[in-house]
Amino acid sequence: MDSSNMTTVAPIIPEENFCKYILYEEILDSRVRIWDISIIIPNTLFLFFLLIRFNRARLKLRATSSPIFSTFYILVIVNAVISCIRCVVAMTVNAAADTGDKVDKILWIVVRFFLLSTEISVLVFGLAFGHLDSRTSIQRVLIVTSWIALIYSSTQGALEIIAPDETFYIVKSEKGIFSHGGMIFWFVSSLLFSLVYLTVLILPWTKLRERLALPSKQSFYWYSLFLAVLNILQSIGSGLILKKINNGLCVVDITTYIYFTVFTPLVYRTFLADFFSISQPSIMFSYKAQVDDVVEDDTVSLPHQLSCSSLKTDSDYIYQNNSLYDSTHFDSSNINPLYTHSLQSPDSFPGFDAPAISGSINTSPQHYQRQTASNGNVVSP
Question: Is 197 helix (H, G, I), strand (E, B) or coil?
Fold first, then answer.
């Protein structure tokens, strides 16, 4: 349904309703909407926080060989920047004009695309690729998740422009505001995402936990619980609107505001804050990248158990319990004993006799006596 056809249709929710009023009302007729101001303020503050800590973050990222931290950090920065750009552009264009209306909706779709790409990537890395820490695997995951987000966003954008929801139509401006692709689409997609996150939450209590390398970091499940509840509330809100209950729009507004302002900082806090807070990372490197070098060099060999259990990759640090990592020391209780002994001299092993090395000189008195006695000469020390 085109927005021009809505002029003959009375809006389902009256424009005087506060939850609808706040979406389109401008500050002193300045084209700056209250809704955009309320979203840009927290996004700008978070972007300012990232800029203040940028030099520290850059040094930390250069100190690790893993690309997964850089990937997460770039996604967080892009999300914050795109969200701020959307608000600024929405404030500068005339939303009442046909072009400005479409530009505003397209920008909403673009922001949703980047947020959804990050959202899916976080899940895929945690459930399927959390233990793989190579550029190739990360690139493949990003490509797949980007295509999924693109299909979703394209569908949402097509519905938004071709068949906008009459609930979000404004009679005064004769235009429609962003309606998330319509309440039917929003209800179905929110319900689907809530089922995905609920499934993630129950996986540790199923038999699949033995086949999947599930994240053990508790914050990952709090993150999943937050998004599960948010999507459930979004489905409830859109469902109430479909049932012609006006209060459903308030639920949609609140959950939308939380998602577009809290999601990016939540990703940073859950997966990056601990890493950036460590002053001196200890053994913060990916051991997989060094396995091939160890195999090729015959002069250096480490037990197979070491490669499997003692050293953790950086992606493990994001999704697994980080008790192995500390800012000042390495917990020896969690270290493979073979790794501990490999750092010691051979003489430290009980019952270990070092082989004789040609050309070496032993100057102890006992050794001197044994040597002279074997030659038939008795020489006092």
Answer: helix
**Angstrom distance (rounded) from CA 316 to CA 213:** 10
Q: Which residues contact 132 (CB under 8 A, 6 or more apart)?
A: 315
Q: How far apart are CA 301 and CA 298, in angstroms?
A: 7
Q: What digits encode the pLDDT tens for the residues 128-164?
A: 755 556 778 888 889 999 999 999 999 999 999 888 8
Nearest 10 degrees: Cα torsion 32, 36, 39, 44: -50
Q: 3-state class of 119 per DSSP?
A: helix
pLDDT band at 375 (very low <50, low <70, confident <90, very high): low
- What is the spatial distance between Cα 344 and Cα 350, in angstroms, rounded to a whole number? 12
For residue range 102-117, list pLDDT tens digits in order.
888 899 999 999 999 9
> CA 128, CA 10: separation in Å to the nearest integer?
49
Return all residues near 67 (Cβ < 8 A) that are at least 6 apart. 133, 134, 135, 138
CA distances from 177 to 79, 234, 324 (A): 22, 18, 50
Residue 336: both structure tokens together: 């493979």
Under 8 Å between Cβ of 287 and 313? yes
Strand pairing report for 175-176 and 169-170: antiparallel
Long-range contacts of 16-21, Cβ-Cβ distance < 8 Å, separation of 24 or more: 17/246, 17/249, 18/250, 19/246, 19/247, 19/249, 19/250, 19/252, 19/253, 20/168, 20/249
Q: Which residues on adjacent β-strands are paired with residue 33?
A: 26
How many angstroms separate the CA atoms of 32 and 88, rounded?
9
